Amino acid sequence: MMVKWEIIRKFILIFGLTLIGSRAQAEEWPPRIVHHPSDVVVRVGSPATLSCRADGAPKPSIGWLRNGQPLETAQGDGQLTPMVLSEGSLFFLSVGGGRRGQSHEGVYACVARNGVGVATSRNASLFIAGLQDEFSVQPADVEVAEGQAAVLNCGPPAGHPEPNVSWKKDGVPINSSDHHYTVVDSLFIARFVLLAAAAAVFLLALFMLLPFHFLEPVHAKALRAP
Known about the structure:
Elements: H1 2-26, E1 29-35, E2 40-42, E3 48-50, E4 53-57, E5 61-66, E6 69-70, E7 83-84, E8 90-92, E9 106-113, E10 118-120, E11 124-128, E12 130-131, E13 142-145, E14 150-152, E15 159-160, E16 164-169, E17 172-173, E18 181-184, E19 187-190, E20 199-207, E21 213-214, E22 218-223
Parallel strand pairs: 2-11, 13-22
Antiparallel strand pairs: 1-4, 3-8, 5-6, 5-9, 7-8, 9-10, 9-11, 12-15, 14-19, 16-17, 16-20, 18-19, 20-21, 20-22
């Protein structure tokens, strides 16, 4: 009888330990990316953040890839090297540009790991905002007959992101909804009827994430027919 109870006790003990182990395993799961990073465009010297969050049990650690290679991250203030924040996001205190070795531009992905598995986020690109110095076509002064449309040509420089072009007339921004003016592929057409000997001064502004770029003012003048 004593032997039988000893067998039953061992069986209960083994069953209990198995149940506890199964329950512990059930409370562990591989990482899952719950917030993927998105593309960012930033000026050189400005801060930037690539967001990433992941869950899992045990809590996963998060590292980053740049152009498919493991990224070295900072443990301190991240002055030159990006640092991983507590939730997993990658923070750049000052985005570097210029030579390839010093530039932070590239394709990034976060990688979450724990003892159960690994999860990798979607790719996100960090672009350095840039603008070429030269306009391919610069607007010039124009004279037209009274009542005719004045056309001002402009070929803005290429940039990333693509720059926006804005015009002013006599120092006042031109309303894009005004039917008197049309901009088609940076070709500016002033359709207003100029009075004889009247003149208008136009200013072209090119803007994006970089500081504004202005060109010298140009003049549109109406001439009265003889």
